[in-house]
Every structure is written in structure tokens, then in C-alpha cells.
Amino acid sequence: MKDLIETIVSALVDYPDDIQVMSREEDDRILYTLSVHKEDMGKIIGKQGRVAKAIRSVVYAAGSSQHKKIYLEISE
């Protein structure tokens, strides 16, 4: 799942080397935290959060085969 997130985001940003995806697994969910370069934050969020919502939709669909809820958090 980390590879999927990195692949999607690297096509959108100017600084692909600064992409960091961390995961934390709990009992009933998996939380992925995405961190990008400060200047790329607007490209990841998009107008009115549309790009972030689209990324989350793809990640949630790809993780639907797992028996845990998947969350994607975008941090600065």
C-alpha cells in the first residue's frame, strides 16, 4: 500500500525525494501518514481538497480486500 501511495503522489509533486509514507497498524485499522515537501502541499490537497479526496478513494478501494479499515492522513 505504501508503494501505491508513493507512486500516485510522486507523479503530482515537484520534490518526489521528499515523499514519506509511514504506517501504523492497530487492532481494527491501518493508518498511513503522508508527508511531502512544504511547497508540494497545495498540489496534494488540490482545490477544495479534490486531489486529496481522489487519492484517498484509490487507497481505500485498493485496501478493501483487507479486513481492516484504512485511513490516509496528510501531514505537513
Helical content stands at: 25-40%
**Adjacency order of strands in the biggest sheet:** 1-2-3
Total domains: 1
Provide the residue-averaged pLDDT.
92
The general outline is globular
As for the CATH topology, it is: GMP Synthetase, Chain A, domain 3
Largest sheet: 3 strands, mixed
Quick one: how many beta strands?
3
User: What is the N-to-C order of secondary-structure elements (H for helix, E for strand)?
Assistant: HEEHHE
- Termini distance? 20 Å
CATH superfamily: K homology (KH) domain
Q: What's the architecture, going by CATH?
A: 2-Layer Sandwich
Radius of gyration: 12 Å
Which residues sit in consecutive blocks of at least 5 with pLDDT less than 50?
none
What structural class results from the helix and strand content?
alpha+beta
Family: Belongs to the KhpA RNA-binding protein family.
Subunit structure: Forms a complex with KhpB.
Subcellular location: Cytoplasm
GO molecular function, one term: RNA binding
